[in-house]
Amino acid sequence: MSAELISILVLVVVFVIATTRSINMGALAFAAAFGVGELVADLDADGIFAGFPGDLFVVLVGVTYLFAIARANGTTDWLVHASIRLVRGRIALIPWVMFALTGALTAIGAVSPAAVAIVAPIALSFAARYGISPLLMGALVVHGAQAGGFSPISIYGSIVNGVVERENLPGNELVLFLASLVVNLIIAAIVFVLFGGLKLKGRDLATGSAAESDGKDTDKDKGKDTDNGDGALAADASGLTPARIATLTALAALVVAVLVFDLDAGLCAITLAVVLSAFWPDTSRKAVGEVAWPTVLLICGVLTYVGVLEEMGTIDYAGNAVSDIGVPLLAAVLLCYIAAVISAFASSVGIMGALIPLAVPFLAQGEIGAVGMIAALAVSATVVDVSPFSTNGALVLAAAPDVDRERFFRQLMVYGGIVVAVVPAAVWLVLVVPGFG
How many Å apart are CA 89 and CA 83, to the nearest integer? Predict the structure, then answer.
């Protein structure tokens, strides 16, 4: 058996053990990376750690640290109330506000993970307060980011259009943008219906949270003072305190730093959190403990193993096997599935940059429309970013307060698996089979 097949089988075993036993999948993946790297791929420690996602580690820690402080001093509660006022108290519109907000951010040039890092903590805090499914809210945030992700001035759009131009392939920027927008909008609408969105209709400030509508009023639901977790009392969520004003300023600074100055979201978030902690140590003392450390371990472990797969050539092995198929339409759908599966664990941008050139040989034959194929690959590689192993999915998982993270992780994993199974075939059928090109 080849080393590439062994590495794939080990990955399957990791999934099986993690889903049947109460073991953090990240810890299993680190052990698998060590075993496969040393015994099968003959990699040293540097080779094994080459795939460690240091940037994602910093983003996860920094963003959850900053928003843990925001939760402790009541800033997220204030933002939830502001969101309600924005839609005049109609709770059912909030998920769509978050969808539109992340879409607008990516459409004007924000990197998708940066937009999700900014919006997800606010959206998930709202979901927790008003009894909205965290899967519904998280999915709409991620799909919103992908809906705007391929505008002609966006990061993803610029990268794909640049690859198309470099490979001398026919391209259509508008088709690429609209394909991603429509697919993600349709998926978001389906998720909204299936996960309780219709039940939110008619609920507004008059009915309030799920607890209130059941007649189980709590201090938090009534807007009274509540214990913030470290002995201090948070003021009413509708009021602005110096700590909240400073936190809102920090969040605005994070947006400007990431979108305008193109600075790293994780490093900026940690820096801002440290500044807030220095001025308000009492409310920030426990914030470090609220960083989603199990999620950090899980994501970093799995992506380190994926890095070992890349180092030993397993990813290229799978791509080359598809390229050797003599049936263009079959090769096209397999490439869409490879894009989806790999992107669920790795960089969407990297996958798009690698797979589009792999499609060049049979696109040159003229049997497959280049415009449709490129759009199908782009959508397949990004729509799966709701997976908890992708950056966006990991941010959603880490940002959700007051949830059973293991259960939420499984929900995201199952949902991501459904998206991987269904969407590539659907976009292939709609965009590739008719021969748009």
Answer: 8
In degrees to the nearest 10, what's the CA dihedral of 356, 357, 361, 366? 40
Question: C-alpha angle with apex 83: 388 to 270, nearest 5 degrees?
Answer: 50
Q: Where are the domains of the chain?
A: 3-50+295-387+428-432, 54-293
CA distance 146 to 157: 11
d(CA 244, CA 47): 45
Nearest to 55 by CA among 284, 307, 235: 307
Contact predicate 73/283, CB 8 Å: yes
pLDDT of the chain along its 437 residues, tens only?
788 889 889 988 887 887 677 788 889 989 999 999 999 888 889 889 988 888 878 877 887 788 788 878 888 778 767 766 777 778 888 899 899 888 888 887 667 887 888 888 888 988 888 888 999 999 999 999 999 988 887 777 877 887 777 767 787 888 999 999 999 999 999 999 999 888 888 666 555 444 343 433 434 343 333 333 333 333 345 578 898 999 989 988 987 887 788 788 789 989 999 999 999 988 777 788 777 787 788 778 887 888 888 888 876 776 667 666 767 788 888 889 988 988 887 667 656 666 666 666 667 666 788 899 889 999 998 999 898 888 889 889 988 887 888 889 889 999 999 999 999 999 999 999 887 66
For Cα atoms 229, 411, 110, give the angle at the middle one, nearest 5 degrees.
75
C-alpha 98/C-alpha 83 separation (Å) is: 9
